[in-house]
Specification:
With 269 residues, the protein is an all-alpha fold. The chain contains nine helices and no strands. The chain is globular, with a radius of gyration of 19 Å. The two termini are 37 Å apart. This is Tryptophan-rich sensory protein. Keywords: Membrane, Transmembrane, Transmembrane helix.
Length: 269
């Protein structure tokens, strides 16, 4: 039965999507704002830190935003109003949209230090949504692509963005890396990002979307370190290795998943 709470949830998601979309226009510079790579004194530019991804990496926001806006519309369909899965996912997705807009505003107002807790909270909310997705099942292919696919891309990319954001904030604050070379920090942080990618693959049982987004970001880190103004061959090689490992683990898990399912069915019989 549809309740007023369902309408409130749906309306909250739609309004959050509108605000996030407005924020994306500001962040792109299309609505008078400063492009993200130039905001906060260029702290998030492709050559600002050893783990900053190349500019084209941010094109991934196009499918993410498209998926989120389409979800905001789709979840208003009559069948989704009382769907238990959407009831659980609605507010986490709305929270992620609002946090995304808040992050853009913090960077636009040169509050780079504030962007760190905001993006950390965004990451936590996306992990929450991802766990809900893992705990439930989509009913249609459309839902699989629109919900599972979009949240997976969103989570994978924000993992990379969080690492880049924290590094940028530390560099902007004058952190000297305890005297260690920038290459050492670059290799270490990218290695951690790769381990997170492996963890997502294992927890997600080989889901492709998080892997695609995370590896997309790492691949553009490699490109930027090999061809940009801030060169770092060790960081680039580490990023390439991380991409290969995360993709390999994801594919192995996807191949083994149907076999485990068949074994379980056989045991039940």
């Amino acid at each position: 039965m549809t309740t007023s709470r369902d309408l409130l949830r749906q309306s909250t998601v739609l309004l959050s999507a509108i605000l996030a979309l407005a924020g994306s226009f500001i962040g792109s510079g299309a609505a008078g704002g400063t492009p993200i790579q130039n905001a906060s004194g260029g702290a998030l530019a492709a050559d600002a830190t050893p783990i900053a991804p190349g500019g084209p990496a941010f094109a991934i926001w196009t499918p993410i935003y498209a998926g989120l806006v389409l979800y905001a519309i789709w979840q208003f369909l009559p069948k989704q109003k009382t769907d238990p899965r959407q009831r659980r996912l609605g507010y986490p997705i709305a929270a992620s949209l609002l946090l995304n807009a808040a992050w853009i505003l913090s960077v636009q107002f040169d509050l780079l230090w504030l962007s760190v807790p905001v993006i950390a909270l965004l990451l936590a909310v996306l992990v929450w949504a991802f766990l809900i997705i893992l705990d439930t099942r989509p009913e249609t292919l459309v839902e699989t692509v629109l919900v599972d696919g979009t949240i997976g891309l969103y989570l994978g990319w924000v993992c990379v963005a969080t690492a880049a954001n924290i590094t940028a904030a530390l560099v902007a604050a004058g952190f000297d890396g305890f005297g260690l070379a920038a290459d050492v920090w670059g290799v270490a942080i990218i290695a951690v990002a790769g381990l997170i990618g492996v963890l997502l693959a294992v927890v997600g049982r080989g889901r492709l979307a998080p892997t695609l987004a995370l590896c997309w970001g790492l691949a553009w880190v490699a490109v930027a370190r090999l061809t940009g103004d801030l060169l770092s061959t060790p960081t680039a090689i580490t990023a390439i290795v991380a991409v290969v490992v995360v993709v390999a683990v994801t594919l192995v898990l996807r191949i083994r998943a149907p076999r485990r399912l068949n074994v379980a069915v056989s045991v039940d019989k």
